[in-house]
């Protein structure tokens, strides 16, 4: 697949140290902020998944380490897509739960990707950091990279649907706790009622926070899978 070696042109800083030294491991869940979390699309870590360091000083990066990235074209100079690409100029507003950052293809790798020199991201998260509810990616073409306004490349909730990569484990732990609390009843109907209540509340909460139908469906699919104690995690950790 197109999981090529990372070659950064810029001088290494703390963010790049985190990016290069971070070992592949199971994702963690932080419900109080983005830091320490991983968000993925199509249930695959490494398919342009977002990895946030433990603190803002650690920075964040996009992972292209999954073999499924082989369906995408190489960079415009013919090199494979780098395995990890750092976000630059990052900021996070905790009150609005909004992350902003740039992917600088030309500055960091000396080439463009499909004619694009830079992407500028805005991501808005739900209050429990289970998914990305809004925002967009703006693209700056190599011929107008210095313009103040780019073109919208993708919008979250439409072309882009991202969830927290640890979500299955979170939901499964909640279901297991509920089963332990109810095991003396041996009442499957009670368990079904709990699932319906959880499902309804989840949908309402995400809808009230601006999540799209597609994003809610993605999160709900993981919730449903987590109800089976013998089930498999649908999210590919790419370990």
DSSP strand tally: 10
Question: What gross morphology would you assign?
Answer: elongated
Helix/sheet category: alpha+beta
> What is the N-to-C order of secondary-structure elements (H for helix, E for strand)?
HEEEEEEHEEEEHHH
Q: Alpha-carbon distance between the termini?
A: 15 Å
Poorly predicted regions: 1-11
Q: What summary fits the major beta sheet?
A: 5 strands, antiparallel
Classify the helix fraction into a percent range: 25-40%
Strand content: 15-25%
Average pLDDT? 89
Main sheet: strand order:
4-3-2-1-10
Rg measurement, Å:
19 Å
Question: What's the helix count?
Answer: 5
Features:
elongated; 5 helices; 239 residues; disordered N terminus; 5-stranded antiparallel beta sheet; alpha+beta; single chain; 10 strands
Q: How would you describe this protein?
A:
- With 239 residues, the chain is an alpha+beta fold.
- It is built from five helices and ten strands; from the N terminus they run H-E-E-E-E-E-E-H-E-E-E-E-H-H-H.
- It has helices spanning 14-21, 105-109, 167-182, 188-208, 213-225; strands spanning 38-41, 49-52, 60-63, 84-86, 88-93, 98-104, 116-125, 132-141, 151-155, 162-164.
- It has a five-stranded antiparallel β-sheet.
- Strand 7 and strand 8 (132-141) form a beta hairpin.
What is this structure, in a nutshell?
With 239 residues, the chain is α+β, with helices and mostly antiparallel strands. The protein contains five helices and ten strands.
Mind sketching the topology for me?
Elements: H1 14-21, E1 38-41, E2 49-52, E3 60-63, E4 84-86, E5 88-93, E6 98-104, H2 105-109, E7 116-125, E8 132-141, E9 151-155, E10 162-164, H3 167-182, H4 188-208, H5 213-225
Antiparallel strand pairs: 1-2, 1-10, 2-3, 3-4, 5-6, 6-7, 7-8, 8-9
Helix pairs in contact: 3-4, 3-5, 4-5
